[in-house]
Amino acid sequence: DDDDDIPQLSSHTLAALQAFYLEQQQREGIKTSQGFNQYSIGSIEEDWQLSQFWYSDETASCLANEAVAASGKGGRIACVSAPSVYQKLKEQDGKDFSVCILEYDRRFSVYGEEFIFYDYNHPLNLPENLLPHSFDIVIADPPYLSEECLQKTAETIKYLTKGKILLCTGAIMEELAAKHLGVKICKFIPKHSRNLANEFRCYVNYASGLD
């Protein structure tokens, strides 16, 4: 019989395989059900090729709360290349503020009208309805630790903000951050969900709650 040459899975292996597929289906089912929180950190996985590193839950919460406090009642908040702060802000649904996310990664288009495609290489290539100086605070985390990236992102920040800036970038960028945005380093030290080789810091140009 030709079937004799076909390798057969043992009943134990077959059961394990079925359990694996069932778990996968259940996981996907949770993601597509209403109970899945699309705004939770990690709902969209990091893409290291895009230099994406999500903040820890505690850091994202701290930065989101700072943004809400700094923007004031009815405030407008822009998150530039800082999706985990955007997600944490959206978890506070019902609070009196509005927020949008400027991001190169089009996976974040699942957030609808609040998503704005953004490429730091073209810092002012923004939608017409994104009016200059229309945000009470801009939170930004430039994807690369280079002066070119910071300088171009700074153009976007200065276009969007009414004044307040919260920048997250490497400690080695302190002098350049002061040069391009007039921001000073805070005592608060941001953490990422995965440890990074470079020391990260926060910088602001106003009296913040991060000191």
From TrEMBL:
<dbReference type="InterPro" id="IPR002052">
    <property type="entry name" value="DNA_methylase_N6_adenine_CS"/>
</dbReference>
<keyword id="KW-0489">Methyltransferase</keyword>
<dbReference type="GO" id="GO:0032259">
    <property type="term" value="P:methylation"/>
</dbReference>
<dbReference type="GO" id="GO:0016279">
    <property type="term" value="F:protein-lysine N-methyltransferase activity"/>
</dbReference>
<dbReference type="GO" id="GO:0003676">
    <property type="term" value="F:nucleic acid binding"/>
</dbReference>
<dbReference type="GO" id="GO:0005737">
    <property type="term" value="C:cytoplasm"/>
</dbReference>
<dbReference type="InterPro" id="IPR041370">
    <property type="entry name" value="Mlase_EEF1AKMT1/ZCCHC4"/>
</dbReference>
<dbReference type="InterPro" id="IPR019369">
    <property type="entry name" value="Efm5/EEF1AKMT1"/>
</dbReference>
<protein>
    <submittedName>
        <fullName>N(6)-adenine-specific DNA methyltransferase 2</fullName>
    </submittedName>
</protein>
<dbReference type="Pfam" id="PF10237">
    <property type="entry name" value="N6-adenineMlase"/>
</dbReference>
<keyword id="KW-0963">Cytoplasm</keyword>
<keyword id="KW-0808">Transferase</keyword>
<dbReference type="InterPro" id="IPR029063">
    <property type="entry name" value="SAM-dependent_MTases_sf"/>
</dbReference>
